[in-house]
Write a structure and sequence with these properties.
alpha+beta
């Protein structure tokens, strides 16, 4: 859970700046997307990140690259760490399925960890 604190702090900052504009909030969906920084063949994912971002721009209109993050899971009683790249992607609709397909296309393997929730945004 500690690894999500920076993401939530960034989201809170973005939302607080948006509220300062005092326009009417509109429905919005927030997607927290985490992909491995290493492709299944062992190469760096750096080369595919830009292509992924271009497709996200077409799909959602924008994104925030949080950057390098580290996550862990329990494997045989020990924590196994993985270095990742994390994004916050907002959209006017729920796009988790489309994002998952894009992550499988560009990053291979099982795709991404995607956490999504509804909210509002003010422009």
């Amino acid at each position: 859970m500690t690894r999500f604190i920076p993401a939530f702090m960034i989201l809170a900052l973005i939302l607080s700046v948006a509220v300062a504009g005092a326009a009417e909030p509109v429905p919005f969906h927030i997607h927290f997307v985490v992909v491995s920084d290493t492709l299944p063949d062992g190469n760096s994912a750096e080369d595919v990140v830009e292509e992924f971002e271009k497709e996200v721009l077409k799909l959602a209109g924008g994104f925030t690259e949080i950057g390098s993050t580290r996550g862990g899971e329990l494997v045989n009683g020990a924590v196994e760490y993985q270095t990742n790249i994390s994004f916050m992607i907002g959209a006017d609709r729920e796009i988790s399925k489309e994002l998952h397909e894009l992550t499988r296309k560009f990053f291979g393997g099982p795709g991404a960890f995607i956490m999504a929730w509804p909210g509002t945004v003010t422009y």
